[in-house]
TrEMBL record:
The keyword Glycosyltransferase applies. Belongs to the glycosyltransferase 2 family. GO terms for molecular function: glycosyltransferase activity. InterPro entries: Glyco_trans_2-like, Nucleotide-diphossugar_trans. This is Glycosyltransferase 2-like domain-containing protein. The chain crosses the membrane at residues 246-266.
Amino acid sequence: MNEITIIIPNYNQYKYLQYCIDSLYRNISISFSLIVVDNASTDSDYKFINEYNEDIIFKRLDKNYGFSYAVNIGIKMAKTPYIVLLNNDTTVEKNWLENMYLKIIEDEKVFSVCGMMIRMFEKDKIDDAGDEYNAFGWAYKRYDGKNIQYEKANVHKEIFSSCAGAAIYRKSIFEKIGYFDENFFAYMEDVDLSYRAKIYGYKNVYIPNSKLYHVGSGTTGGKYNEFKISLSSRNNIYVIYKNMPFLQILLNLPFLFFGFFIKYIFFLKKGYGKQYISGIIDAFSNLKTIRKTKFEFRNIFNYVKIECIIIKNIFSYIFDKIIWK
């Protein structure tokens, strides 16, 4: 019986999409359904999807609504208890899906599982080994650029967030905590979702024996660009506002001010200071449209646990990214 639906959000880059779909049918041995949600691409009519001898659902939207909207459409269309989200600029290895599936069915408190994402053109280097978040307001990829044999990256571990570019999710939990926030359009939406899951007491897990390759910025282009910097800084404010109760924001205010200042200096030196500030201004201008995660006293222990994690992650970040860089 099929229990998994893979959802690929797509915007242009049809060649990447072909390679991605090919790798799925070549390397996955268990049954799955496939939904491609296209954000009104202009580079192809995508008729090549009909050439596969598989029942692929292709949903074309009337305009580019962004990542969050597209994957929400796919999640709601899916009829299976488990959902896999996958970027179009990826190719998967054997057992990528099988190992994530075996992990998530072990524990009903696990919301998501992700594996080791490897750089497509530097196959000895990690692109992402799950994501973390700290009290500076920084979300970051674990072990980005480290060798794939790096010892710490080859250990099963509970993480703050799974990267939505390649992760499996328990669908029933979406119905409890909500779907991807469509106000985000793109970037940080997975951190927001995982944050909500942790508030409700669910876990996100990384496993090293689930591997795939990732081009990176295949749809939006480049590690840094005006679009990405502006949206990321805006969405960073959204994550804090949505998920931290007022007292927690006050507690972390010194860390947050420092974190945003350092990021501004970083992007200023790269020529994107204006875009970084404009994203922050945009966020504060639109906070009234953002729905905060409802505070419930029964989740107080989870809030305390999250606070301990994001404080600890300041020191982990300094150690891993600066001291042992």
